[in-house]
Each structure stands twice: as structure tokens, then as C-alpha cells.
From TrEMBL:
Transmembrane segments: none
PANTHER family for the chain: WD-REPEAT PROTEIN INTERACTING WITH PHOSPHOINOSIDES WIPI -RELATED
Gene3D superfamilies linked: YVTN repeat-like/Quinoprotein amine dehydrogenase
Bilayer topology: Peripheral membrane protein
Protein name: Anaphase-promoting complex subunit 4 WD40 domain-containing protein
Protein family: Belongs to the WD repeat PROPPIN family.
Organism: Aegilops tauschii subsp. strangulata (Goatgrass)
Keywords for this protein: Repeat, WD repeat
InterPro entries: PROPPIN (IPR048720), WD40/YVTN_repeat-like_dom_sf (IPR015943), WD40_repeat_dom_sf (IPR036322), WD40_rpt (IPR001680)
Gene Ontology annotations for the cellular component aspect, listed alphabetically: phagophore assembly site membrane
Subcellular location: Preautophagosomal structure membrane
Length: 307
């Protein structure tokens, strides 16, 4: 069964949208999308760092987390396609791990094989086969997956939602995050070694999405009336669609795999699906994604894959 709404702390899809992970007050669960079924769950016991939490909180210059950190709460869980490696961050009233740490979990060994520590709570994590991206409220850290070496630090505007998107097809990496100014997004093209700033909206950016091939970006502002689609490489506006005339909080934006449609969900209890009037032949890469066991990072002596 799916966890009760009061127990649910986090939901995220894997990179090919074939699975999703749910972080709960007691651990995490992995689900298959089609057909829908629970694949496995891990109910975590008391935090291994519970006894040291006051010292850890003191080092962060903040009070201990309510609840004593003695529970199994997972506030962020990110899958790496369908392999046994996940990224976990403690969350809720009784986090299993400190909220300022990213734990690399090997489910084959049922233990953590690496960790990344920060001076403030982690707002989000994104995984590629070759990168780990950690989002804090005002900064983003990019690491090599294989050796956890820091590649880049990016300063952002306040980002409490942990907004960040990373392309998933092999080859050049594209990363999108909030810029330093209101209404701005920043696009990092690692293959071309260039940074592009796009002034997407007059008001603050509330949500954005990056296509899997890293070529299209959809953005919405805090007004929630318009959604804009940009070319990631050049930053030019390709299309603008109107969700409605009244203000709305945009929860999510999602491109279809063939880039023919864009879905928009909001606090109005509706999902809008728009046709994209874009020359798909010029913006898509027809090469299929590699099998999930290709080019995975070699942090662990063994990898298994979810069927």
C-alpha cells in the first residue's frame, strides 16, 4: 500500500520515469509505474547518529532537530535509474540521517557507502551516472559520482524548494538552476564549458523543467499564468502558453519523451497539457537512452538492477 499522506515526506521519479521513490517518516519505498506496484521498501530504525545529534547541531550553529533524530525519516530519496544506488537525506520530525548530509546508499549491501556533509540543510539531490548534484538554499554543489570530488560550486538566489534539473542522456551535461537575480535561470553547458543566463520572467521563478536531452527548458513564475519554453543553448524564447488568467502555484512541469507535449500541474487541482509548436527534428536526439547497467559509477564492487 502507498504510505498515508501524513507519513509521506518526499516523492521523486527516477531518470527514465519508469519508477518513483517515496521518502516517509519510517524509511523509503520504491514503486514501478507501469504496471503500478511496490517493488521494495526499507523501514529504517533509529538514526545511527542519534546519540551525536546535539554535537552535530552545535557544529552547524543550530538547535537539534525536533524529535531527537531517533527515527527513520527520509526527506529526500533519489534513484539512479534502476540500480541499487540511491541518495538519501534525513527529514521529518525524526530524521534517520542529519538533514545536512547526503548519504549514498547501496541497497545490495544495505548500508551507506559514502556521504557528503554541508553547513546547511540539503534541499534537493539530482543524480546522473557520472554526477551528483546537491542543492542547498543558496548554493549548488556538483560532484563526480565515482570519487565524490567537487567539480563546481554555484551561487543561486534563495531556493527553498531545491529547484534544479540535469540532463540525462549520455554525453554533454546540461544543468539548470535559479540565477542570482529575480526571474532568472542559469544554464550550465559542461561540454561547451559555457554558462547561459536567461531572464525568463519579471517575477520570481517558481518551477522549471529540462528535457532529457538538455535542449528545451520550460519555466513558470510565481504568478503561474504563463509558461515559457526556451532553447537551452541560446536562451531564446521558442513558445509561450497560458495556463489561465488567475494566479496559481505551479507544482510541476514535464515534457513528453517525444517533446510534443508539455504538462503543467498547479494548486487549482488541474493538469493542463499543451501542444508544443517546436521543430522537434531540430531539438531532439533520436538516440535511445542506454540500458540502465551502462556506464554506472564504480563506487561499489557490485551493482544490481530492479526488474
Amino acid at each position: 500500500p502507498f504510505p498515508a499522506a501524513t507519513d509521506l515526506l518526499h516523492i521523486s521519479y527516477n531518470q527514465d520515469y519508469g519508477c518513483f521513490a517515496a521518502g516517509t517518516k519510517t524509511g523509503f519505498r520504491i514503486y514501478n509505474c507501469d504496471p503500478f506496484r511496490e517493488i521494495f521498501r526499507r523501514d529504517l530504525g533509529p538514526s545511527p547518529a542519534a546519540a551525536n545529534e546535539p554535537e552535530a547541531a552545535q557544529a552547524l550553529h543550530q538547535p537539534p532537530v525536533a524529535g531527537g533524530g531517533g527515527g527513520g525519516g527520509i526527506g529526500v530519496v533519489e534513484m539512479l535509474f534502476r540500480c541499487n544506488i540511491l541518495a538519501l537525506v534525513g527529514g521529518g520530525d525524526a530524521p534517520h540521517y542529519p538533514p545536512n548530509k547526503v548519504m549514498i546508499w547501496d541497497d545490495h549491501q544495505s548500508r551507506c557507502i559514502g556521504e557528503l556533509s554541508f553547513k546547511s540543510p540539503v534541499r534537493g539531490v539530482r543524480l546522473r551516472r557520472d554526477r551528483i548534484v546537491v542543492v542547498l538554499e543558496n548554493k549548488i554543489f556538483v560532484y563526480n559520482f565515482a570519487d565524490l570530488k567537487l567539480v563546481q560550486q554555484i551561487e543561486t538566489a534563495p531556493n527553498p524548494k531545491g529547484l534544479c534539473s540535469v540532463s540525462q542522456q549520455p554525453g554533454s551535461i546540461v544543468l539548470v538552476c535559479p540565477g542570482a537575480q529575480k526571474g532568472q535561470i542559469r544554464v550550465e553547458h559542461y561540454g561547451a564549458r559555457k554558462t547561459k543566463f536567461i531572464n525568463a520572467h519579471a517575477s520570481r521563478v517558481a518551477c522549471f523543467a529540462l528535457s532529457q536531452d538538455g535542449r528545451l527548458i520550460a519555466t513558470a513564475s510565481t504568478k503561474g499564468t504563463l509558461v515559457r519554453i526556451f532553447n537551452a543553448a541560446e536562451g531564446n524564447l521558442l513558445q509561450e502558453v497560458r495556463r489561465g488568467a488567475d494566479r496559481a502555484e505551479i507544482y510541476s512541469l514535464a515534457f513528453s519523451n517525444n517533446l510534443q507535449y508539455l504538462a503543467v500541474s498547479s494548486d487549482k487541482g488541474t493538469i493542463h497539457v499543451f501542444n508544443l509548436k517546436i521543430n522537434v527534428g531540430l531539438t531532439t536526439n533520436d538516440k535511445p537512452l542506454p540500458a540502465p547497467d551502462a556506464d554506472v559509477p564504480h563506487m561499489s564492487p557490485s551493482f544490481s538492477f530492479i526488474k
